[in-house]
């Protein structure tokens, strides 16, 4: 059975390297159902060009840009246009850069040297599922949550324990699905089940429970 393709997803590219932008523009326009509608040289340029009349569905966002970098831009977009999906497309492969962008609220992260097929997969997954992280990024995020001593919590499932660990980070809930390899709706149901099971009413309550019960340790 053939997966239905998106009708016409509007994409914007924010990157200070003109040649790279043009290459990505041609690549994305060759993907069925995706169209680059405009480009931006840096975050400030992107912010100035955005308006309710020309909002894209997806923004491909570089990190190292002058005037307003990718971190600042991602935070601004998360605050002002949370409905826009942001895919970080960067040369930065270090742990700090990746985790910092995740904390800024991006919906996905892939490297600039990735194969074009992964870029297409990322765009399609973003449109259908809302998030996409490469295996490198997912492994990094999960690695940061594991601790040397394994605690036993018979009343909680393995998924619930991993969910609680993620809740103790600054990552938004929307990042949990690809990291736990579950559907976004399962993120919501897991959160609600934990609220009831642990008798808490907020993420703060989840964090307090995780710390008190040794699920998450402050280094």
Automatic annotation (TrEMBL):
Question: GO molecular function terms here?
Answer: DNA binding
Provide this UniProt record's keywords sorted from A to Z.
DNA-binding, Phosphoprotein, Transcription, Transcription regulation
One Pfam family, short name: Response_reg
Keyword Magnesium assigned: no
Outline the extent of the Response regulatory domain.
Answer: 10-127
The record ties this protein, via InterPro entries, to: CheY-like_superfamily (IPR011006), NreC/VraR/RcsB-like_REC (IPR058245), Sig_transdc_resp-reg_C-effctor (IPR016032), Sig_transdc_resp-reg_receiver (IPR001789), Tscrpt_reg_LuxR_C (IPR000792), WalR-like (IPR039420)
Chain positions with 4-aspartylphosphate modification: 62
SUPFAM superfamilies in the record: C-terminal effector domain of the bipartite response regulators, CheY-like
CDD domains attached to this UniProt entry: LuxR_C_like, REC_NarL-like
What is the protein name given in its UniProt record?
Response regulator transcription factor
